[in-house]
Amino acid sequence: MAKRDVHQGTLALMVLKTLEVLGPLHGYGIARRIEQISGALLAVNQGTLYPVLLKLEQEGAITSEWGTSDNNRRARFYRLTAGGRRRLRAETQEWAETTALMDLFIAAKAEDLG
Amino acid sequence: MRALRRFMNRVRASVLGPRDADRVREELAEHMALLTEQYVCSGLPLPEARRQARLKVGPFEATTEAYRDEQRLRSIEDVSQDMRYAVRTLRKRPTFALAAILTLALGIGSNAAIFTIVNAILLRPLPLPHSEQLQAVYTRFLPSSGLDFPYFELSGPELADIRSRVNAYSGVAGYGTFDRTLSRDKGEAERVSTLQVTSGFFDVLGLGPVRGRTFTEEEARSGACLAVLCEDASGAAESIGSTIKLDDVPCEVIGLMPKALASVSTGLNPLGGVLADRITPWTAL
Question: What ipTM describes this predicted complex?
Fold first, then answer.
């Protein structure tokens, strides 16, 4: 299976979900988590994560502050806000509805309409 | 709401400068370091681990550039940069700056002046009651005549025809504009623009005299020269009942019209060649 590019909106949702599951995390941690979950299917330059993080922060879905990483180096930690949690719920539902709808369409056969 | 919040954040970053401009560089460096460690742990020699990490993170400059674009509003920065550049350039060349400013000033000034005239003559409605019911009738030359006169005067007989045969109007009146020499017993003669009008002209416009009277149809037919002056003409008030001379023809001044009519008679000349003088006598046609 070929590696897939990732849509920006999708990446934002993945980031929110990761932060919900794992708690405060730095960029590397988020990228690593997304890669672990998606396996080798997702082809994304990990650098592109940072503009997405900034955008989410500007929109108030996450906040960030400097902290110390596992190996005692300065790293920026991102945390989900209450607004981000609400947004994650809403977008998860939206996503589920969209995929369910697409599944229906793709599975539909000509006889079903008879 | 979300978009608004982000927009405000970006505006603030653009105007004040981002609070931590170098943040993304530091984050990317840290990211790279952690990734390199990860590859080293999985058994790669350090140089190869570094290379792999760099590949994985992607192009450094492109990322920081994209980050910058998200951080601020490009348009605000571009505009303020252009402004600063313009000010600097103008300061460096004061002569050019002066010329540019003068050009703009003159351009804006003359535009305003021309618009004032256009507004007064063409756009502003005439200061008359029911001016929306007024219509001007002209002769237009057919293209086949080879002459291009969209607003040509009617002849006397044409006016008479319209007067007697067209029922669409509650009143029809004619006028002609003439520059004439005005002289009185005392004082210097002056050149004034006058309207020569048919009887009923003032009724059609819906204006009555502020003093004195206007002329009747019989008087118009009699051929005597009767003059109606504009209220604000110099010495107009005293001249009622006196005789003035227009092109050496004695005319009796019988009334004063409100000054509003002076601007109307300006507007009545579609070619705009004659501007109403302060003395605007209307005489019987």
Answer: 0.81
